[in-house]
Design a protein that fits this description.
Elements: H1 2-25, E1 30-37, E2 40-46, H2 56-69, H3 74-77, E3 80-90, E4 99-108, H4 111-127, H5 129-135, E5 139-141, E6 150-152, H6 154-173, E7 177-178, E8 184-186, H7 187-193, H8 195-198, E9 207-208, H9 213-217, E10 227-230, H10 235-243, E11 254-263, E12 279-289, H11 294-311, E13 320-325, H12 338-354, E14 359-363, E15 372-378, E16 384-393, H13 395-399, E17 404-405, E18 411-412, E19 415-420, H14 425-435, E20 449-453, H15 459-471, E21 476-478, H16 485-494, E22 499-503, H17 505-510, E23 513-517, E24 521-526, H18 528-535
Parallel strand pairs: 7-11, 13-14, 20-21, 20-22
Antiparallel strand pairs: 1-2, 2-4, 3-4, 5-6, 8-10, 9-10, 11-12, 12-19, 13-15, 15-16, 16-19, 17-18, 22-23, 23-24
Length: 536
């Protein structure tokens, strides 16, 4: 804590020194707001004439001169700092206001810490999923298709399929049933669920489904208006599946899972690769259960979440959990009553404690219909990513009047749990790309083995090997392009393919293959059977 306070003091002092330096260099400047942020600080200025990143060196030098002059505390003398970049920023974040110039600075308690941060950031830039997504030919986002709507290329779609197949298999093993729902729903559905009033800032306006596009273009009015909305969540559809038939206490719990694509409004400037999109697929599930089953079901979901993380190569000991609670001073943002909120918050707190989760409570971060546990995992660079969510909902069963016949033959209200393990496929794949720097483990790689014939007369043998491996279920790329072997092998390395099989005269003569490993280098010549036993 003392170290953190020291860094905060350093950053606060540097904000004032930046202001003084800028005023000395640009007397006509007007100052706006400043803020300490992760890894440094920023300051917004209104310059009479625009400045660029090239001017940062001059400002930074002036700051260093001022540090020496003002005889600051020793902790500031020893700090390493660097002006990082400039960006545009509206006054008070309002697009209607004037655009200001924001200067970002990095600041740490020592030059070593600054150097380490810069190195880590450089590594993060190399791993950026947007950059690797293009280099590895996984996906792209096309303005003509629409902002925030990724297009998955064959390799990216295969990566998705491998992950989704694993997801389905594990859900069936864990007692889930699969359901499916449409992409749009009647306005009345969203009014009943509460999304119409509580979630409208994240939803798109209704579309008129009572007439054709042609009718609309010709200015005709719909004879019978039908208003539908793109779904931002899957839960109301699953609720309606429940309501389709009477339920008995003996049937519980119901665990229904769906990889369902949803649509949420995001401002243009907030979209970012796969991590912030407008259309995304949630690995969603809803568990409807009796009150006596709640704690056990919550614990099962927590175990499932940690299993998923471990399966994809993450250290579950570094998982951070946040218990999102209702803001007691702003209750109108939430559906339901105090009794329901107090009960569900207490249960989540109890379960998180009993499971030994490293959790922090956050007031005001709950969903409008109930509290939740948010799980964040660390990637290879130690950065936290928001992934799984486990939400406790007592509101939707009430709003939709869900009931079952209990052991006494009476009507009783079930409880509902919402949960997503990945969060969304898009965000989770973005995380995986950056965690592995595109070098996916063998089981996950969209192309597992690349086969490279040296010359055209080796193609037939190479295709024979490809066919044998494909029949065994391996994902193969047989490169029979009219390119030299060196380029083909380089392409395999650049695409981070786990294994490359090279076929030449000597391999054909002895009915063997020559193998190179992405991670271990040349493995030499071996039989196809030996290779299969190695990678199985």
């Amino acid at each position: 804590m003392e170290q953190n306070e020291k860094v905060m003091r350093v950053r606060d002092s540097l904000i004032h020194i930046l202001e003084k330096a800028v005023k000395e260099l640009y007397p006509d400047v007007k100052v706006a707001t400043s803020l300490i942020i992760d890894n440094g600080f920023y300051y917004d200025f209104d310059f009479a004439s625009p400045i660029t990143d090239k001017d940062l060196g001059k400002i930074e030098q002036k700051m260093r001169e001022l540090v020496k002059k003002v005889n600051p505390a020793d902790e500031l003398k020893n700090a390493g700092f660097k002006l990082d970049k400039i960006a545009g920023a509206y006054w008070e974040g309002d697009e209607k206001n004037k655009m200001l110039t924001r200067i970002y600075g990095l600041a740490f308690e020592s030059s070593d810490k600054l150097t380490d941060f810069i190195k880590q950031r450089e590594e993060a830039e190399k791993r950026d999923h947007r950059k690797l997504g293009k280099e590895l030919d996984l996906f792209h986002i096309d303005d003509k298709v629409g902002l925030g709507l990724p297009l998955w290329h064959p390799k990216g779609a295969m990566l998705w399929r491998v992950i989704e197949d694993f997801w389905y298999q594990e859900h069936l093993k864990n007692g889930y049933d699969l359901v499916r729902s449409p992409h749009i729903g009647n306005k009345e559905l969203w009014e009943t669920s509460g999304h119409w009033g509580f979630y409208n800032s994240s939803m798109y306006p209704p579309l008129e489904a009572g007439q054709t596009l042609k009718d609309k273009q010709e200015g005709k009015k719909a004879e019978h208006s039908e208003e539908y909305l793109l779904k931002p969540m899957n839960c109301p559809f699953h609720v309606q599946i429940y309501k389709n038939s009477p339920k008995s206490y003996k049937q519980f719990p119901f665990r229904w899972a769906e990889c369902g694509t949803v649509y949420r409004f995001e401002k243009k400037g907030e979209l970012s690769g796969l991590t912030r999109v407008r259309g995304f697929t949630q690995d969603d599930a809803h568990i409807l259960c009796r009150k006596d089953q709640i704690e056990n079901e919550l614990k099962k979901v927590i175990d499932f979440i940690l299993f998923i993380y471990k399966s994809f190569g993450f250290d579950i000991n570094t998982v951070k959990v946040f218990l999102s609670l209702r803001d007691p001073n702003n209750k109108e943002k939430y559906a339901g009553n105090d009794e329901g909120w107090n009960y569900t918050e207490d249960v989540l707190r109890k379960v998180a404690t009993e499971k030994g989760l490293d959790f922090t409570e956050e007031k005001g971060e709950a969903a409008f219909y109930g509290p939740k546990l948010d799980f964040k995992i660390k990637d290879a660079l130690g950065r936290l990513w928001q992934c799984s969510t486990l939400q406790f909902d007592f509101n939707l069963p009430e709003r939709f009047d869900l009931t079952f016949i209990n052991a006494k033959g009476e009507q009783e209200r079930p409880y509902m749990l919402h949960r997503a393990l990945f969060g969304s496929f898009e965000r989770f794949i973005g995380l995986l790309i950056e965690h592995y720097a595109g070098a996916f483990p063998f089981w996950l790689a969209p192309v597992q083995i690349k086969i490279v014939p040296i010359r055209e007369n080796h193609n037939e043998y190479a295709e024979k090997i490809s066919e044998q491996l494909r029949k065994l279920g391996y994902r193969i790329d047989c490169d029979i392009r009219e390119e030299n072997m060196g380029k083909k092998v380089r392409d395999a390395k650049n695409n981070k393919i786990p294994y490359t099989i090279i076929i030449g005269d000597k391999d054909i003569e002895v009915n063997k293959i020559s193998v190179e490993s992405r991670d271990k280098g040349a493995l030499g010549q071996m039989s196809l059977e030996d290779f299969i036993s190695r990678v199985r």
